[in-house]
Structure to design on (630 residues):
């Protein structure tokens, strides 16, 4: 979800040059009322290398791409009105928030002929019933990335990082209040989306007790800490760990047996998009089996596109950092927007944990 | 905005309520603020200890050396704060440059000892344990000093330059030693530079959030981090505004104290002269 692949020098260069191109063209394209354009606001390095040029030759629409670093940036940018984007890629809970805040347009499913390619498990998510506003793009989990050489046994439970002193001083957790607290709730056997003050209190106490064993709440770099040997276990998004697994065979990833948070990035059309027709064409194009497979192959995230997944090789399909075991997935939950009061409670809990 | 109230995901009701300020009086914010003040005070004090000798050294060196030294202090400021902070990460982390250098030292020492057949005596420990320099309050203060010490050196250097060197000679001629000259002659003259240096260091330290975020550990939350979170993940702009206003009020109070102090001081000084 956060921090897609942005460490390699190649992707940094690609990203900067693409941003430069994006920045050069975007305001220009906004002024020109050219109907053969599409303004795409995406995570950095989160689309296939040839996908956009293929789209241009297949449909005849030129795509201008611009990048954001996290959901908060996307949200703040669109909060005061759409600056001209046609397609955005928010994560699940932000889809829900943006729908509630009236920031998204409905997607006309009749215009999406490849709707049938989507795995049926993804057709009715709780954050957007019946997929009225969002189309799944990629999904993944939060889990534990660890160094196989330095652990005596696979950390298959949250207890290793939330309730144990075995790896004291060698643990990093995420720094996002909702993620850290939600996983604590899962460890305690509660729902990640609870509204109970008592359960949040319990999670708070758990984290305050455990805090002395935690080295750092890593802002965006748990995988770097793990790769550089600063920590032995890092709570992270699967994609981030998958990236360093390619470089270091000693690193592995597991979704704890208590279940975890499942995230999903979606393609959405913001309100007042200047090229709505093209946005629908783009979504339809992305859902094509061959294009979906190309994307999955490049990004190395789990695709919700069943037809595309069938085209992939076994190495991709059996990678534990991409697809966790089916049993664990059933225990995972999507994060939901709980209303202002609960959000505030989570934030206050987090501030207290950090200040204690 | 700080008097507004968040009613929905993006809707803010501008109702002139003090609810955000009331929320900010909660103990947890007070503790964090107190901690930020302590960290900033320590940083400022250490910056002062570093800056005075450095400024003296620059001021009393030859013109050529002086310009080289000044440029070497100013040059890092041309780089982005974030990049300077990341360079500190490369330096301080467990497998960073400092620990690597220490490990090399340990290995050569060990080699020397075994050469003299002393390795069994365990003078330097069984094996090298890397120092944990990152992710604690030490690294935060170290980072803050590294980033802000130029803002202390420059003002002190500027006032030092203005002191007439003949005054110092006169002081020595009249039988004062180094210590008396420093405290009676130099200190009153550079105190203006010191106060502006203190303000230039203390105030940005108080509101800093990138450095504690990148270099700090589980225990290094400062008030700047809380404010940043209100604007980003918490999406509670009114409360974030209230917290930043509190910080601004504190800054204004500090500046006010300085103003009063300088007024009093100059009055005292004039009386002393007349």
């Amino acid at each position: 979800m956060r921090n897609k692949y942005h460490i390699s020098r190649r992707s940094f260069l690609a990203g900067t040059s693409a941003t430069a191109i994006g920045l050069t063209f975007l305001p220009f394209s906004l002024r020109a009322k050219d109907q053969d354009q599409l303004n795409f606001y995406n995570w950095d390095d989160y689309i296939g290398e040839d996908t956009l040029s293929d789209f241009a030759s297949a449909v005849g629409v030129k795509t201008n791409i611009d990048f954001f670093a996290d959901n908060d940036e996307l949200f703040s940018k669109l909060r005061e009105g759409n600056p001209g984007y046609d397609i955005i890629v928010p994560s699940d809970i932000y889809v829900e928030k943006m729908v509630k805040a009236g920031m998204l347009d409905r997607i006309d499913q009749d215009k999406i002929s490849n709707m049938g390619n989507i795995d049926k498990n993804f057709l009715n998510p709780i954050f957007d019933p019946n997929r009225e506003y969002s189309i799944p793009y990629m999904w993944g989990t939060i889990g534990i990335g660890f160094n196989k050489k330095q652990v005596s046994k696979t950390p298959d439970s949250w207890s290793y990082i939330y309730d144990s002193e075995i790896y004291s001083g060698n643990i990093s957790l995420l720094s996002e209040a909702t993620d850290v607290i939600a996983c604590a709730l899962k460890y305690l056997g509660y729902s990640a989306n609870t509204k109970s003050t008592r359960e949040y209190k319990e999670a708070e106490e758990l984290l305050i007790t455990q805090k002395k064993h935690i080295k750092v709440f890593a802002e965006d770099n748990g995988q770097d800490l793990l790769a550089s040997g600063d920590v032995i276990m890092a709570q992270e998004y699967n994609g981030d760990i998958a990236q360093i697994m390619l470089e270091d065979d000693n690193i592995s990833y597991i979704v704890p047996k208590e279940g975890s948070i499942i995230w999903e990035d979606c393609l959405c059309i913001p309100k007042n998009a200047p090229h709505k027709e093209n946005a629908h064409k783009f979504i339809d194009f992305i859902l094509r089996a061959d294009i979906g497979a190309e994307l999955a192959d490049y990004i190395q995230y789990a695709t919700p596109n069943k037809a595309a997944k069938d085209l992939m090789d076994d190495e991709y399909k059996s990678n534990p950092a991409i697809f966790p075991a089916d049993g664990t997935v059933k225990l995972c939950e999507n994060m939901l927007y709980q209303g202002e009061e609960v959000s505030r409670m989570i934030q206050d809990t987090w501030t207290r944990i950090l200040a204690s | 905005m700080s008097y507004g109230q968040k009613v929905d995901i993006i809707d803010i009701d501008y109702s002139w309520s003090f609810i955000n300020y009331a929320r900010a009086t909660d103990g947890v914010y007070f503790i964090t603020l107190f901690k930020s003040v302590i960290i900033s005070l320590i940083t400022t004090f250490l910056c002062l200890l570093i800056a005075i000798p450095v400024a003296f050294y620059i001021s009393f060196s030859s013109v050529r050396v002086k310009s080289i030294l000044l440029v070497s202090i100013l040059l890092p400021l041309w780089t982005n704060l974030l990049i300077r902070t990341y360079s500190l990460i490369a330096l301080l982390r467990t497998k960073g440059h400092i620990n690597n250098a220490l490990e090399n030292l340990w290995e050569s020492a060990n080699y020397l000892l075994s050469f003299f057949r002393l390795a069994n005596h365990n003078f330097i420990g069984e094996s090298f344990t890397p120092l944990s320099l990152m992710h604690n309050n030490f690294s935060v203060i170290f980072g803050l000093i590294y980033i802000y010490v130029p803002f202390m050196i420059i003002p002190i250097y500027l006032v030092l330059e203005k002191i007439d060197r003949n005054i110092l000679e006169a002081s020595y001629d009249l039988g004062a030693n180094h210590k008396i000259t420093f405290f009676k002659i130099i200190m009153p003259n550079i105190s203006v530079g010191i106060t502006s240096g203190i303000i230039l260091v203390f105030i940005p330290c108080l509101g800093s959030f990138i450095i504690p975020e990148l270099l700090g550990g589980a225990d290094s939350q400062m008030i700047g981090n809380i404010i940043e979170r209100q604007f980003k993940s918490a999406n509670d702009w009114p409360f974030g505004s209230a917290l930043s206003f509190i910080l601004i009020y504190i800054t204004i109070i500090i500046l006010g104290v300085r103003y009063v102090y300088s007024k009093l001081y100059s009055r005292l000084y004039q009386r002393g002269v007349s």
Summary: Residues 1-15, 21-25 of chain A have pLDDT under 50 and may be disordered. Chain A is about 40% helix and 15% strand. Chain A touches chain B at residues 70, 72, 75-76, 79, 97, 100-101, 103, 169, 175-178, 211-212, 214-217, 219, 228-230, 337, 340, 343-344, 347-348, 350-352, 354-355 (CB under 8 Å). The CA atoms of residues 93 and 336 of chain A lie 5 Å apart.
